[in-house]
Amino acid sequence: MSDTDFRDRPPNATLGIGLGAAAGLGFWYLSESSRPEKVDCSYLAAPATDLFALLGGGYCAYQGVKLGDPFVQAFGAAVVVIHSFQYLTHKA
């Protein structure tokens, strides 16, 4: 198996990604529920911003898994989830 295979990683690899994804989803939901109706000021950035955030967050999550650092994994996963939902709900 390759050195990045998730099955060979300790449980904190899954835990970091899972907690980061949950935190990202929670942050996205909180920001959506607190935004007034018909106000879309937080999504003025170009779709390329979300693309680059997805790439950067994915790279952070990958490096976190590779290094065994759950904090870097969680950060990367949160960025991926937040920007994925922003793109899918407001730009797709």
The helix/strand series, from N terminus to C terminus, equals HHH
- Strand-pairing-aware structural class: mainly alpha
Oligomeric grouping of the chains: single chain
| Strand-residue proportion | under 5%
Alpha-carbon distance between the termini?
37 Å
Number of strands: 0
Give the low-pLDDT segments. Answer: none
**Which of globular, elongated, flat, extended, rod-shaped describes the shape?**
elongated
Helical region count?
A: 3
Strand count, sense and barrel status of the largest sheet are:
none
Q: C-alpha Rg, in Å?
A: 15 Å
Mean pLDDT: 82
Helicity range: over 70%
Question: How would you describe this protein?
Answer:
The longest helix has 23 residues, at 11-33. The protein has 3 helices and no strands. It has a domain at 50-92. It is mainly α and 92 residues long.
